[in-house]
Amino acid sequence: MNNFTVEFNRLENIIFPSFLEWDNCVLLSQQKESELPTHFSSNQFVSDRTAFEADYNHIHLNDIFDEGVHPDLILNIGIKILEVWTAVLYKEFNGLRKFMLILSYDAEEVVLRFYNVRKNEVPWLDSAKLDSYLDGLMLIEI
Predict the structure, then answer these.
(1) pLDDT digits (tens, 9 = 90+) for 60-71
(2) Can you give the pTM of this predicted structure?
(3) Phi and psi of 77, rounded to 5°?
């Protein structure tokens, strides 16, 4: 049996997510909320709210587990977490907002993220060019 430890205090907000609305953005409630500015302001790295959400709402799942945990196991956990995020976002915002949820996997690292799909902003991920991405991707649109 493959034993490993998990920093539950870092995982709790991820597997039991709550989302907050901040300046027309939907954000995963995290410990870094205290660092949020009073309002959104674009800069050279974050051009719009979509980019801000994609950055703020990304989680490197491997950082939460011991180094010895096989990446495929983390991938399976990531898929389940993304399913939970989908259900909670659907329940909280159904009909009010559209979201793109993304799991990326490069055989080592698992990254989860989501953002609002906005008509007036360019999507963070161009789903028409999925073949050009090197990482494996799982996309959920709600």
Answers:
(1) 999 888 888 999
(2) 0.90
(3) -65, -40
